[in-house]
Amino acid sequence: MSIYQERILDHYKYPRNQGEIEKPDKKTAVHNPLCGDSIKMYAVFEKNKIKKISFIASGCVISKASASLLSEYAVKKSKEQLRKLDKAFIINMLGIELGPNRVKCALLALEALQKLLI
Ligand code: FES
């Protein structure tokens, strides 16, 4: 198993920032129509930056690991910085080859994050 695969499994088994934030500044929910999996995401902002972020994912290894990794990355980043994140960033963050359906799993967390930034 590659180091990237191990990291993904670790984030799946022990997701960082999992759970609901009480009284978030913003919350959102997205779902993947192909499989019905979903991610809820919560954030607290300080000035223009994410102070706290959390998520609840009901989904596959890739979607959950992607949400966990992205939530770690997002803390203390500004809305402007986070709005620039794209598919290439997520694929690079995961570090593994993904087929088209798996890319949709990986992008679900990014879709949730982008909705938090609106
Ligand atoms: Fe549903 Fe991956 S199979 S998000």
Automatic annotation (TrEMBL):
GO molecular function: iron ion binding; iron-sulfur cluster binding
Cited SUPFAM superfamilies: SufE/NifU (SSF82649)
CDD domains (UniProt xref): IscU_like
Signal peptide coordinates: none
Pfam family, one: NifU_N
GO annotation, biological process: iron-sulfur cluster assembly
Domain of life from the UniProt record: Bacteria
InterPro entries: NIF_FeS_clus_asmbl_NifU_N (IPR002871)
Domain NIF system FeS cluster assembly NifU N-terminal: 4-115
Record protein name field: Fe-S cluster protein
